[in-house]
Design a protein that fits this description.
The complex is a heterodimer. By secondary structure, chain A is mainly alpha-helical. Chain A has 13 helices and no strands. The termini of chain A are far apart. In chain B, helix 1 packs across helix 2 and helix 1 crosses helix 3. The model of chain B has no long low-confidence stretch (mean pLDDT about 90). Chain B has two domains: about 60 residues; about 40 residues. In chain B, about 40% of the residues are buried. The termini of chain B are far apart. The chains are: A mainly alpha, B mainly alpha. The interface between A and B is large, with 113 and 79 residues.
Chain lengths: ~240, ~120
């Protein structure tokens, strides 16, 4: 096949939703395979690998993001139902929740506010634009919710998605090390903090390290999703008008 | 399985409608999450098809982030312009939140039972 043939074939294929969908699944499968090969090293995050591979492919072929997204939207759509489904793991933690409800509620609100306030203040002090600030503010909650919040307060959802994923990876890789340095040894507190600061990616990491940490992380992640979604938009509109 | 998936979608749809109707800043799926959680609390014993459907959806939760993440290609200019505040917020704020929250919880939670603490040499 000559180069023009390949180009024409790509022009034809890239216009089909099937291509974007297939590329997404194949790239993620490669990322997940590498992740397992690396003994589940959080640096080999399958999401990062998949995003890098697809971004590279789009760049090399000169395909616009919108064309890719026509196919990828079928995967993207599932974020909504998956967020609703978080009610099930949260429900499994009902017993823990009942035993220490005031402490847990306070901890989640504290973590949620520290996460967004420290992010916004730090980024503002370093001169970030208003759209970047709004995109960064909800970075510690799971992507679909963070994107929804960012959209509501004038951020850029695509930038939020990238920042949320990066937050998860920072928390999962560096978090345990920093908590060791701070001599924090309670598995429940460590897991809880992972869930609050770095959502699902942190929770996945916490489960690998210790079962108790994982359960507390999942609980904190679910509650933080609620706390942040229920507080940040109101606070933001109240402070910035 | 279909019924369970339908139930999840109904919760989400309800959430979207409520969010839109009352102009709430809370995303529809979060309201759907609360609705389903309250439903589970009332029902106490969730049907296995529902928990299976939810577990399946969440098993590869991170795959669902990929299409939005690829959107980074449309944000290169913004990332270049604001790289320092973004990098600082991502690293400093995330680790600060984690250490402060872990410290607070280790003080407030009831005393850890054996096995709930990281032992030296572990």
């Amino acid at each position: 096949m000559s180069e023009t043939d390949i180009t024409q074939l790509w022009v034809y294929l890239s216009a089909k939703p099937l291509t974007g969908l297939t590329i997404t699944l194949v790239a993620y499968a490669i990322g997940f395979w590498l992740y397992q090969k690396s003994d589940r090293n959080p640096i080999c995050n399958p999401v990062v690998i998949a995003i890098a591979l697809i971004a590279l492919l789009l760049k090399v072929t000169g395909t616009p993001y919108a064309t890719y997204f026509e196919g990828a939207q079928f995967v993207h759509f599932l974020l909504g139902p998956a967020t609703v489904a978080l009610a099930v793991p949260l429900f499994r933690q009902t017993e823990t929740l009942k035993r220490a409800l005031p402490v847990i509620a306070f901890g989640v609100l504290f973590g949620s506010l520290v996460a967004s306030a420290s992010t916004v203040i730090l980024a503002w002090a370093l001169g970030a634009s208003p759209e970047t600030l709004a995109s960064l503010a909800p970075k510690s909650v799971t992507t679909p919710v963070a994107m929804g919040i960012a959209e509501n307060i004038g951020g850029v959802p695509a930038l939020t998605a990238v920042c949320v994923i990066a937050t998860g990876i920072v928390g999962a890789t560096l978090g345990p090390m920093v908590m060791n340095m701070a001599r924090l040894k309670d598995w429940r507190a460590r897991g809880f903090a992972m869930g609050v600061a770095s959502h699902g990616i942190g929770t996945a990491r916490a489960f690998q390290v210790n079962e108790t940490a994982g359960a507390f992380s999942g609980l904190a992640m679910g509650l933080n999703t609620l706390a942040t979604a229920l507080t940040i938009p109101f606070l933001w509109h109240w402070i910035f008008g | 399985m279909i019924a369970a998936f339908a139930l999840i979608l109904v919760c989400q749809l309800f959430g979207e409608v409520v969010s839109e109707l009352f102009e709430l800043p809370v995303p529809g799926p979060v309201i759907g999450l609360v609705l389903l959680f309250v439903g589970l609390l009332i029902k106490r014993k969730p049907p296995k098809v529902l928990t299976d459907a939810a577990d399946n959806l969440l098993m590869h939760f991170s795959l669902l982030f990929v299409p939005a993440g690829v959107g980074v290609v449309t944000q290169i200019d913004r990332l270049k312009g604001d790289w320092l505040p973004i990098a600082a917020a991502l690293i400093v704020s995330t680790l600060l939140t984690m250490v402060l929250t872990a410290f607070l919880m280790s003080k407030l939670l009831p005393r850890a039972k054996p096995g709930e603490r990281l032992e030296d040499g572990q």
